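subagent[fold] <- orchestrator: predict structure for attached chain, return tokens only, no commentary.
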Amino acid sequence: MPGYFFSNATSTSRMVEAFMVISERDGKKRLKAEVSFTFTMPAEIPDVSLYSAIFLRTLGKHSKIVFFGSSIKMREFQTQIEQWQREKKKIVLARVIQTWGSSPRPVGSVMFISSALEMLGSVSGGCVEGAVVKEAKNSFDAAHGKRLLYGVTDDDAWAVGLTCGGKIQVYIQPWTAEKVFEELHEKLSINEGCVLVTSLAEGISKNTLVDQEGKTFGDKLSSSLIEKSKQAYAMRTHQTVVENDVDYFIHVFPPRSKMIIIGAAHIAADLVALAHEFDFETIVIDPRNTFAKNTAFAVKPDRIVENYPSEVLNDFELDPYTYAVILSHDPKIDDNALEILLKKNVAYIGALGSRKNHEKRMARLLEKGFTAEEIAKIDAPIGIDIQARGAKEIALSIMGAVIKAKNRYQ
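subagent[fold] -> orchestrator:
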């Protein structure tokens, strides 16, 4: 069986009935059989279209899929993990630690499996989940982790939307009540970024959590591994490193991305709504009382601040997970923000305005001592060129540019 995909799905309350089609990639015969099953969808996931592909061929008739195949981040799995723990279910964590070719899921993708064979997350979009669950059955009571190497065939890759196959390496280990996992849970709960370093050596699974300042929790790490972990966090890149002939997987758990919008107006209102769709924390800064208080936000920003940017920007962590959008169209406010942001290691800075206005902006910044390299950080005119007309389309083009910047990293 090459694979399954949704041909139709209906949702009633929290139960979803999915009609699956077994397909063939021979250009002639697309429908081989049709089956149906039901599974529980979490209440916070209202749209079945988030689910891209399901593979059940090796799970067994008693398995239940709880959450599968979406792009929801690991911190949003916590409610279900807590529920499993209250039910005294044992848990195995599976993570993609390396890929070759056209991998269905990137390095850092996670999946949890309970001792009732419930699945949370995805490591391949459906291609190898069944095989991983079979391996997990032997790991619930194990003290060690295990590396698994899988090849994804062209047919399976096609079934999940890829043009060709590849290879993925998955690391599975028991998810226990040890301090390092409790600390990870706590940091994710308060939206604090961190790095989980796991030794991939044979034997007892060793895990260490490293926070943004380099403080560690769990098994002892060398100073060089701590430094590499901090570098990986700054670069927003999961990676496998070698030290003393031992492989370590450095897994970055970023905080929620933060969008700082300078200027509260109609474009800002539409942009805040879009940013919330992509799980950004939104902060709107505008010293103009009329705009800050009277702009109608269909989706409220997380914070609205009525101050000049220079008065408050340094109160926020301006880090590689920060995206700054300059929209006030007032040089006194825009430049006031840029003079701080251009000196910070933020992920993105974009500014509204025509090319002519941006040339004037660059001239002002050069006069104030900023270098051409620093000024080149500004995406202006802001956004992806979609020939936008009106506030909603401009907001969409800006959101596209922010997502493009965000997706440069794993």
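orchestrator: received. Logging for downstream: Residues 391-406 form the longest helix (16 residues). The first strand starts at residue 4 and ends at 12.
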